Amino acid sequence: MPSTPLVPVLVAMMLLTGVCNTVLTKFQDMQCVRHCDSADPRKRQHFEQPVLQTAQMFVGEAGCWLVVAVFKLYRRYAGRSSSRSDGYEPLATTIDSAVNDDSRAEPIFSQETLGPVAKPLTSLPDGRQHLRGWRVVLLALPACCDIAGTTLMNVGLLFVAASIYQMTRGALVLFVGLFSVIFLRRRLHLYQWLALFLVVLGVGLVGLAGALFADTKAVPSAPELKTLAFRALRDAYGVARTPEAVRTIVGILLIAGAQVFTASQFVLEEWILEKYALEPLKVVGWEGVFGLMVTVVGMIILHLAVGRTERGRYGYFDAVEGWRQMTEFKSIGITSLLIMISIGGFNFFGLSVTRVVSATSRSTIDTSRTLFIWIVSLGLGWETFKWLQVLGFALLVYGTFLFNDIVSPPLKRCMVRRKRSDLLPQEPVEHM
Q1: Residue 215: CB partners within 8 Å, gap ≥ 6?
Q2: How far apart are CA 402 and CA 396, in angstroms?
Q3: Do 111 and 119 form a contact (C-beta atoms < 8 A)?
Q4: Residues 143/266, Cβ–Cβ less than 8 Å
């Protein structure tokens, strides 16, 4: 990692915005919007608008264009200032730049001279064709996958705690690995298959903890750990049939299933960026624009077909009711604005960190993000401590680290002598 003092600040801001996004979204889901004065908590209706939350996510991603515009103005201003002070105009260095009038107006910046903040706004000179014109529409494909994945995860978050939501998203590495083998013709070694199995096992234990111990209030003591397995078996049949457990199981399945669409999004982005070059922040911006357009059209169609009917009123697809709740309830409106800002900030800071740190550091940072979300949820009293969740999280972390070569395989026969190729060799685009 470079020694620049900006890197720790970027990492801290990436963690802060990433944690804030999940915590704020869960806080928004907990806001009461109807029958709030009822003495029976079961009659109180909370904010449940996952499609609208997907739209606000794309607004945050589309907001990355503001950063791109500011950087472009800065480059143009810096180029004019340097040319006036030096007394000469910067010359074009390639045939393409001589043809393009806009490139002569901007100074030439190399990757070495750019700071970590500006690197997401530039593409690498690796010989790929620049993504422009009608080809930009290709980014609508991963954007549509993002719509499906994010909406399913927002629905799942309604049913589970924030930490379980974040940990279940760890199943992403499983589907990325499988899809990379099937569609991108990558190769997985034996220890990587073992890592994927551990990830699945960890996600399963996290889900089991949420389903079996949803109503636990006390923190288990050491003697209780010895009987944890027996308690789980004894209570599994009875607890799993309760409405709370069913909601938790459904939420976990929705979040885990959403990772199929998220993995498809990553693989599509890899397929596109293998052929075409585009600044990472512009990739996020274009996906935000296309995603917002498709989401708004989908919201209108679903509202007319389902939301305005008697059965669909106050449901997920009642866009008019969702907009009313967002504008009339100050807490929902403010959190929506903060979520948009946190998503845009996470993409910017995440891409800045991605350009200057290794894959090992990125995996560690993302794991820290999950841990912080868990700590914040415990501190706010939104959930209780569960030892089974600790075990699942440990397996999830170990499997992820093993898959990314952060830790060595447990058996010597699993060692790979030659350097393995990355599943997604292009620089990854950060997403929530």
Answers
A1: 244
A2: 10
A3: yes
A4: no
Return d(Cα 226, Cα 292) in angstroms, integer. 51
Q: What is the pLDDT of residues 202-257, one digit of tens each?
A: 888 887 887 776 544 333 344 443 444 454 445 444 444 557 778 888 888 999 99
- What beta strand segments (E) does 92-188 contain? 129-130
pLDDT in tens, 347-356: 888 777 766 6
Describe the chain by its helix, strand, coil percentages, rounded to 5. Answer: 70, 0, 30
Per-residue DSSP letters for 270-324?
HHHHHHEE--HHHHHHHHHHHHHHHHHHHHHHHIIIIITSTTTTTSTT-HHHHHH
Identify the CA nearest to 154 among candidates 238, 294, 29. 29
Name residue, tokens 């003591």. 221
Q: Could you report the per-residue pLDDT of 292-347, keeping only the tens digit for each?
A: 999 999 999 999 999 889 888 889 999 999 999 999 999 999 999 999 999 988 88
CA distance 158 to 28: 10
DSSP state of 392: H
| Residue closest to 149 by CA, chosen among 130, 177, 171 | 171
The DSSP symbol for 421 reads: P
Phi-psi region of 35 (alpha: psi -120 to 50; beta: other; left: phi over 0): left
Question: What is the pTM for the complete model shown?
Answer: 0.77
The rounded distance, in Å, linking the Cα atoms of 200 and 206 is 10
